[in-house]
Amino acid sequence: MHIELAAVDERYIKERVKDGFYRSEAEAVRDAVRRAREQDEAKRERLLEALRLGQADIATGRATPYTPALLDQIEQEARQHAAEGRKPSPDVIP
User: What is the mean pLDDT of each run of 10 residues along the chain (94 residues)?
Assistant: First the structure.
């Protein structure tokens, strides 16, 4: 496999190797791919857990149906929070 990197990324990898963080450029790339894979798997697990929790809530009747009025209320609250400079909870950001 041959991979072309942006010049800035290539320089970064070469510097990391030169500074001793990695033994080779290939090792640096493998580490980056491994980290990306681990992040993807962690996101997937968080999503599956959220789905399990949601399904459990639905099964026990702890769910609120989405109606046009509820969606309008959510939008108004989101706009108000944004106007106040409040950041969204990390739980709602993919």
Answer: 94 97 97 98 95 95 93 94 89 69
CA-to-CA separations, 71 to 6, 16, 22, 94, in angstroms, rounded: 43, 48, 50, 19
Q: Other C-beta atoms within 10 Å of 28: how many? A: 18
Question: DSSP letter string over 19-73?
Answer: TTS-SSHHHHHHHHHHHHHHHHHHHHHHHHHHHHHHHHHHHTT------HHHHHH
DSSP label at 85? T
Q: Which two tokens stand for residue 83?
A: 């106007």
